[in-house]
Amino acid sequence: MTPVNIVVLLFFVSFAISTFVGADWYRSFWDNHERMLGLFTIFHYVIYYLIITSVVTEWKEWKWFFRIFLFAGSIVMFIGLLQKFNPELLLNRGSDRVSATLGNSIYFSGYGLFLMFVGYLLAIKEKAKKYNPWFWYAVVGSLLGLWGVFGGGARGALLGLVAGLGVLIISYIFNLKEHKTAKQGLSVLIILGVVVIGLLFNFRQTSFVQSIPAVGRLVNTDVSATNTRVMAWEVAIDAWKEKPVFGWGPNNYYFAYNKYYLPEFLEHGWGETWFDNAHSVVMNTLAVQGGFGILFYLGIYVVALIMLWRGHKKGGLDTHVVAVSFAFLIAHFVSLVTVFDNPTSYLYFFFFFAFVNQQSSPNEQNSTEKKIKEKDISYGLMAVVGFVIFLLIYTTNINPARANKATLVAIQSLNRGENGLELYKVASSIPSPHINDIRNDFANSIASAIPNYIQHGEKDKANEMFNVVLEELKKNRILHPLDIRVNIQIAQLIQVMLQANPSSLQPSMVSLAEESLEKALKYSPKRQQIFYSLSAIKMQLGKFDEAKDLLQKSIVDDPKIGEGWWRLALVHQQAKEYDQAKAVIDEALSREDISIDTRGHDIMNSILTQISTDTKK
Question: Rounded to an integer, what distance in angstroms lies between the CA atom of residue 539 and that of residue 543?
Fold first, then answer.
């Protein structure tokens, strides 16, 4: 029970408590099948941490583990390097910010940061001989990691790199007391670093600085209140104020974001109106785990640094281990201030903490090991444990993989113009904790496929698919009652069917769309998307006054969004209130702070033309 072990376990306990007292325990426990960072996964990482820190006890063992990590990571970094020359390789989709096999450039840069420090530690602990292959192996791996920070282009990782290198140099300055020349050289490096950073910031608007990977993005970052990530942090603070002790529950920031959604997000485009994470590990933890969770999350770093310092003061810790450990822990934390943890980062995060724990408290572990006597383990116990492990692997890994693969086959059949329902029934019958994601994915595909079936005269197939998917979405609404996306999906599905085949829908279906959107509005009272969709439904039901009230509220919330204005004018025009429609358009066009896109201008012109035609008639 070392201090680091204790604080890691307390963090896990806080994670578990927040899971079951939060807004949606199911989402907290499993997360979604994109991120998979629920309590179930975190439990595995904690066990992984405890095993490593208990079993790996000597530097020669750690050295081999670090080499293996460096080997695997170097392959990832090399694939990223290939993507620079072939941007379409491995679904990189032509981006200049590579992601290799990780699917996200942020993950790639963070991994590179870890590899750089690991490679440096291995190299500095080896003898720098011309024919020492392990030294050069470590140097190459470290340089590939350094390239990865820039190749991924993540600003957080670059900021972490600067902070980590600064800590590394300062650590050596304090420890190399008898090496004045080395201290002076390192001090000059610090000064040069500060000068370079100052010059980069001063000339940040030049094309040369802007073209430097990651650097140009970092020094030109907007940190004002209008930055959507800063706005997301404001939402996190509002969420924490509501649930200050245990928070909303892990992976439930999405629900808090919906409730405290700021209309100004839409000023930056529709892509900036959906956040499932605060894009800051500190702010996100504060929102989803409350004060209890953030205390122990920060405590992991603080306790680890204290233990390293204590071990160094006692003279039992290698100077390089202390310096690199301090540097990487600070670098990693800084890199996450503007992003979030992920399956890759947790892998090396817990691994490195296991290393720090074992290195900073070897005496306590050795004394415990002496008390443990070897015991034979019966074959019966091994068989039972093995069977339980097999069941767990089958139910939580193999089955979900089978379900996901079957879902992909069903969606592919839809894209080929086939029915796909029978294949979906097979996919949904396979037990999976991510059944809600499977339903959502298939429902989105069906919504896109229905108009094609109607156009090809296959109305019966379209109706059958519509009814099946509608029932599936209703199941998701029961499973996640706070999830506004499910309600929006239901309304959109009905709208698609209504436009493609109006005669197939009963009036009750339109009322269901109305009820679903009103429920969504309850959980996200300032989201324009809901206002716009619900006002369209109200118009179809002849509730023009209610539609106008909704759109006027959206304009009051943020008058800079042009869509609210032209939609309001459209409602007036449909209600034959031509003077009011024209007045809304005139006011919108006269204001300089309103952003109206080409579509909005076309619709406004169309409304004015229609008013002119109707007036003449």
Answer: 6
